[in-house]
Amino acid sequence: MSPDGTTRPDGTTSGDGTTSDRATLEEKARRRAMLIRAGIYIFATHLFAGFVLLLFALGDRK
């Protein structure tokens, strides 16, 4: 809390800044989770596209 015992409207406090630090850590964790999820989606999409190309290549061999 701030020296006069109040909290800012955005939920952060002055002084030790624990609320603000926690919010920053949560935002970093969300960003990291989003990047991991995006990487998995991109990898899976490319894997599926490769499988489809393989099917076309095998179908063209006749």
What does this protein structure show overall?
The chain has one helix at 18-60. The longest helix has 43 residues, at 18-60. The chain is rod-shaped. The protein is built from one helix and no strands. It is mostly helical and 62 residues long. The termini are far apart. It has one domain (14-62). Helix content is 69%, strand content 0%. Residues 1-25 are annotated as: Disordered. This is DUF6126 family protein. Residues 1-22 have a biased composition (Low complexity).
- The number of helical segments is 1
Number of strands: 0
Q: How many domains?
A: 1
Backbone CA Rg: 24 Å
Distance between the termini: 75 Å
Helix content: 55-70%
Using the alpha-carbon principal axes, give the shape. rod-shaped
Strand % is under 5%
* Low-pLDDT windows of residues: none
Given helix and strand content, the structural type is mainly alpha
Quote the average pLDDT: 83
What structural keywords apply?
62 residues, mainly alpha, 1 helix, DUF6126, membrane, DUF6126 family protein
Topology:
Blueprint: H1 18-60
Produce a short descriptive summary.
By secondary structure, the chain is an all-alpha fold.
